[in-house]
Amino acid sequence: MKPPARTDYLAGLALGRRPILKLFLGFSVVSSLVGVLIPVIGYLWPPSTGSGAGSGRVKVGNTKDILVGQAKVVPMGNKPVIVLNTEQGVLAFSAICTHLGCVVIWDDTRKIIVCPCHDGQFNPVSGAVIAGPPPSPLPVVPVSVEGEDIYVGA
Ligand code: FES
Questions:
Q1: How far is the CA of 151 from the centre of ligand 1 (A)?
Q2: Residues with beta carbon inside 6 Å of ligand 1?
Q3: For residue 50, what pLDDT band results from cuts at 50, 70 and 90?
Q4: Domain count, the chain
Q5: What is the pTM assigned to this prediction?
Q6: In a domain, 82, yes or no
Q7: Strands (E) located in the chain
Q8: Which of 4, 27, 51, 122 is the 20 to 30 A CA-CA neighbour of 21?
Q9: Residue 37 is part of which domain span?
Q10: In ligand 1, which atom is closest to the CA atom of 115?
């Protein structure tokens, strides 16, 4: 029996241009859809990592780290919190500015909370707006001190 001619054999295996183009087109469409859908799904159903304000207590330091008259921005889950050690005790507020969401910082010279983006200023005891464009006070975050350890969250 005679083997098939080389051209017949290759013709049986070879793909034409059109199926290859369809394969690449399908791959690029699927890749694009996955690239769009994953962030959308992540936004609509965020992972339940137990992070975020009010989702549990987190030890953020101690009263030796944050002396009276000082403050520190610490992570609480995936959100920043500013912890202040004041004459009135240890206090904590969300560190997300109520104007456009920048992270506030402690101004050790003026002893106030400031937003570096548009110079929003907040009272370090109440979180109230002192000056600038923020429309509302910084939200209070529950804080407790056990011994020298500082915990934020409920
Ligand atoms: S984002 Fe804080 S003052 Fe504008």
A1: 27
A2: 97, 99-100, 102, 115, 117-118, 120, 132-134
A3: very low
A4: 2
A5: 0.66
A6: yes
A7: 58-62, 70-76, 79-86, 89-94, 105-107, 112-115, 120-122, 129-131, 143-146, 149-152
A8: 4
A9: 15-44
A10: 2
